[in-house]
Design a protein that fits this description.
heterodimer; A: mainly alpha; MetI-like fold; two-stranded antiparallel sheet; B: mainly alpha; 15 helices
């Protein structure tokens, strides 16, 4: 270190630049070798037929044409993923906001309640999937037992029924709503109390305060979470793979699961690459769409500084 | 005169009235919070309860909440069925190596972007940010082919190496933002004292960003601990499996046939896999919430 510091031949700025590249070096290598390179390669592969054993064969836009005209599984995967994203995300946000408002009141045991609501968001993965397989069990699962004992009705077969399986996964997602609650809670606490006081002086009711102060001030947080939620549904994999395997039928065939199956079960690498690029374009489009429409309803202004 | 008396009276009366109203409001809020809390806890209780039940009593109506008799034996049976100690060791080893790489390289890259001036820095940082939005599927297949070419499939290398190359752009971003809030005068003072850039990074910045590093460590731990996507792709032979893969196997490996659900064993396995995550959360709650809030609000 000190040797380098004493060796002042290159100008200080030059030296700083060299060190700058040394420090970001790991990322540059990773970016070129694991992101940029593979991105270009997968674009190329998406125009080929490639089953690993033989060399890739160029097929033009065949893969893409097949996706949209001759692959009902692909259309089902899109439908499943969008249904999940457009139902589970907004519903989860509303629920998270409601819980955050409740847990922003000064009631006894506040920290305990917050922890309880947040706890399910901490766990994820296969263990949670297994737990919910058991909870959704058609006869002795927690939900159907509760329905039977409290309401005296027989619940559906949930994961085993094509028209209920996706809804089961949506219901299950509400258990993890604690993440959105914490973010909303921070947002709520970032709202200056003067705004509420001013509103009170103007004679605003609780409802007005919520609608005219709370919601506009929280909108950047809600907005961010909406974008991430919809994009997240395109990454949905573990629960679909572990709990339903995409079934029954194709009723929970999430996009990511379908891609995985094409690539690593059917070894259709070219076709899976086309799927990946369609997914990429959808996510780009969604991101742009949501960002473009945000000025209509998102209120950005110094206030939510976080701290 | 009478008006003055009236307001005085109403003020006196309004104090207890207001208190009653506040109390009623709090009671109402609690009335909403408590049932919800029970609902949120129920799956955990159900899991632990089932994991301790005798196989005969799992499918019982009405169900037992507190198992009788308590069968701790289920946990031994589950380990006999699936070698969870081995998979636990695999998972811990992999997670720790990812953690170490990510904390070291992500903080280096973050330091470079936050503190050093070099040509193209802002463009490169923008590039890094844009990769947060890049879906992993777009690079998945070619990276698989690269690792396959290198002979790394069925080893932990494909899961660990990315973490040693800056890892998640999201973590780099989080650390860079954190470093940017530290006063630059410290760097300058150190430089005058004859401290090189590595010295500044190692002796000044790293100790100061411990809270952010803790948040990163927790995120990386949770991702790796719970991952099944990459483990499925890269860990083929059973001796290399992780806890997640082992648990998934448990469900499909009932000796009574594929469709048979051995709920008590499945729940015992789930408890084993889930407990470390919950422990990490309880011991590092502060950093955990900070990290979520920081990234959620500032996006």
């Amino acid at each position: 270190m000190s040797v380098i510091a004493r060796w002042r031949k290159p100008s200080l700025a030059r030296q700083e630049a060299i060190f700058g590249f040394i420090f970001i070096g790991p990322w540059i290598i990773g970016f070129l070798a694991l992101q940029l390179g593979p991105m270009i390669t997968s674009l190329v592969l998406s125009f080929t037929e490639y089953q690993i054993v033989a060399a890739p064969k160029f097929v033009g836009i065949d893969n893409y044409a097949k996706l949209f005209t001759a692959d009902p599984s692909f259309l089902d995967a899109l439908k499943v993923t969008f249904t999940y994203g457009l139902v589970a995300t907004p519903a989860g946000l509303v629920l998270g906001l409601l819980i955050a408002i409740l847990l922003n009141q000064n009631v006894p045991g506040l920290m305990v309640w917050r922890t309880v609501y947040y706890l399910p968001a901490v766990v994820s993965g296969v263990a949670v999937g297994m737990l919910w397989v058991w909870i959704f069990h058609s006869e002795f699962g927690l939900i159907n037992l509760a329905l039977r004992i409290i309401l005296g009705i027989q619940g559906p077969a949930w994961l085993a029924h094509p028209s209920w399986a996706l809804w089961a996964l949506i219901i299950m997602s509400f258990w993890g709503v604690g993440g959105s609650m914490v973010v909303n809670l921070a947002g709520l606490q970032g709202i200056p109390t003067e705004l509420y006081e001013a509103a009170s002086i103007d004679g605003a009711t609780w409802w007005h305060k919520f609608w005219r102060v709370t919601l506009p001030m929280l909108s950047p947080v809600l907005f961010f979470n909406l974008v991430m939620g919809v994009i997240g549904s395109f990454q949905y994999f573990t629960n679909a793979y572990v709990m339903t395997g995409g079934g029954p039928g194709r009723s929970t065939l999430f996009y990511n699961l379908y891609l995985y199956k094409n690539a690593f079960q059917y070894f259709k690498m070219g076709y899976a690459s086309a799927l990946a690029w369609v997914l990429f374009l959808i996510i780009m489009l969604l991101t742009v769409l949501i960002f473009r429409s945000s000025p209509l309803w998102v209120h950005y202004e110094g206030s939510v500084k976080g701290r | 005169m009478t008006a003055a008396i009236a307001t005085a009276v109403s003020r006196v009366r309004s104090i207890p009235q207001r208190r009653v109203r506040v109390l009623a409001f709090k009671a109402l809020v609690l009335l909403l919070i408590i049932p919800g809390a029970i609902l949120f806890l129920a799956p955990f209780v159900w899991m632990v309860s089932t994991s301790l039940k005798d196989a005969k009593y799992v499918f019982l109506f009405p169900p037992q909440i507190i198992p009788d008799p308590v069968r701790w034996n289920n946990y031994i049976r589950v380990i006999q069925r699936v070698p969870f100690p081995l998979y636990g060791w695999n998972t811990i080893r992999m997670t720790l190596l990812c953690l170490l790489g990510q904390m070291l390289t992500a903080s280096m890259v973050a330091f470079g972007f936050a503190r050093l001036r070099f040509p193209g820095r802002d463009v490169l940082f923008l590039l890094l940010l844009s990769t947060i939005m890049l879906p992993q599927q777009v690079t998945l297949i070619p990276t698989f082919l690269i690792y396959r070419y290198l002979g790394w499939v069925d080893s932990f290398k494909p899961l660990i190496v990315p973490d040693w190359l800056g890892g998640s752009p999201f973590c780099v971003f989080l650390l860079r933002q954190f470093i940017s809030t530290l006063p630059i005068e410290m760097d300058e003072a150190a430089k005058i004292e004859g401290c090189g850039y590595f010295g500044i990074y190692w002796r000044i910045i790293l100790p100061l960003i411990k809270p952010a590093l803790a948040a990163v460590a927790i995120f990386v731990f949770m991702w790796n601990w719970n991952d099944i996507f990459y483990s499925l792709i890269y860990l083929n032979s059973q001796r290399n499996w992780t806890l997640a893969l082992g648990l998934n196997f448990l469900r499909r490996s009932s000796p009574m046939g594929p469709g048979v659900l051995e709920a008590e064993l499945l729940m015992a396995g789930s408890v084993i896999v889930m407990t470390p995550c919950l422990l990490v959360f309880f011991f590092a709650q502060k950093y955990f919430i900070q990290g979520i809030v920081f990234t959620g609000v500032k996006g």
